[in-house]
Amino acid sequence: MDAFEIRGGKRLRGTVRINGAKNAALPLMAAAILTDQPVVLGDVPELSDIRNMARLLKVMGIDAKRNESRGLRLHAEDASPCEAPYDIVRTMRASICVLGPTLARRGRARVSMPGGCNIGDRPVDLHLRGLAALGAQIELEAGYIVATAKRLKGARIFLGGPNGSTVLGTCNIMSAATLAEGETIIESAACEPEVVDLANLLIRMGAHIEGAGGPRIRIEGVDALGGAEHALIPDRIEAGTYLIAAGITNGEVTLENFPLDGLTAVLDRLDEVGVRVEPVDGKPPADGMHASVRVASDRRLQPVQVVTQPFPGFPTDLQAQIMALLCLADGNSIIIEKIYPDRFLHVAELLRMGARCIRNGPTVLVSGVSQLEGAPVMASDLRASAGLVLAGLAARGTTIVNRVYHLDRGYETMERTLQQLGADIQRIDVQAT
Ligand code: EPU
């Protein structure tokens, strides 16, 4: 099994280009189910989650082919399969995003109910309530969601849940509503940039959608959608992770293809910590999404309060990474996790590296220490793993981050990117050592 061996203490320097966004790619790939024409996505990262989604789409009659320029061509060749089987869905919860498109286009969907995962329970009740409001009949059958509808009917749907809206739920309902009869209004829609990216693709395919990016999305259903070409937005979580990597190593890094507008809350927190991010030529790009920025950090990091929230708040997907940074700040920081209150498996691993953290429910008090110590640690989920790698980059001595298959789900060859920046990090096979 692969692990990362990191000898900490190197200051990162150099330039990195941020890849297309994984969490945009997954629902956009599923949108290919909505049409019999090809959908071509650009800047699709090489990740195991993308390969798993392509595998699932293949089972569902969609041919998925890579092209030479990091693109992915998806073409529905057989519109009859309606089942997303358990053995693929259990490897990737995001498989749920085939539910809306399959139901809308094929009249029936049988999708394995995703289970919980290391970051919490992750229910899909809002997805199901939304589809039911569009007129679908929903049943649970031997661990599968079975949804049927001759043709969906537009409706007014509220997608707010106890922890805010739902990102993939909004994607599912918005996709399904593009082929429904009449008007759908989604209230309390997720405002994440990935939802906007999906809306932009669907509009290119011929959908009528207004308001994506805000809490109310209006969709006027059409009879059919066509093909389209679309380049993915850059990955704001990958970008945020490398920002923090620069900050935690007191490095000087330039990030290209940087989604400035997707990271306002993160830049705000980092600024208070003492990690400065400036557009390279002094002014941000007009579209706010493809910037070049330079990151540099103060020697003394200041403690802050971080509260994870739905977009435009601080993303839960960067909570573990900023925790690693705050472990080295000069005083007490507070982190409150409002999206997944149990997403704290990295805390115990950071403690093994000499961090001082006290967790109480969804809150962690992080008391900064002057130095972290390298140690063998266990990755538990994708973003927790990223937090541990960052801690390892700053720690004294050697850190082994085990189970990096979690990282490979969401970061394309992270070790190579960090090596390019001067980090001492190797991928090793732990059985061989
Ligand atoms: N929720 C419900 N009911 C639902 C759906 C969600 O109560 O039907 C709750 C969840 O339990 C959670 C909150 O609502 O407390 C938000 O969950 P959401 O549905 O927005 O999460 P998601 O769409 O399943 C996406 C990302 C996650 C990211 C979350 C939150 C993808 C593929 N995944 O998940 O990314 O953490 O939004 O921003 O887009 C990751 O990349 O590591 C990752 C986990």
Protein traits:
433 residues, alpha/beta, UDP-n-acetylglucosamine1-carboxyvinyl-transferase, Chain, 2 domains, 4-stranded mixed sheet, 24 strands, 27% strand, binds uridine-diphosphate-2(N-acetylglucosaminyl) butyric acid
Structure overview:
With 433 residues, this protein is of the alpha/beta class. The chain folds into two domains: 217 residues, UDP-n-acetylglucosamine1-carboxyvinyl-transferase, Chain, CATH 3.65.10; 210 residues, Enolpyruvate transferase domain (UDP-n-acetylglucosamine1-carboxyvinyl-transferase, Chain, Alpha-beta prism), CATH 3.65.10. The chain is built from 14 helices and 24 strands. Helix 1 runs parallel beside helix 7.
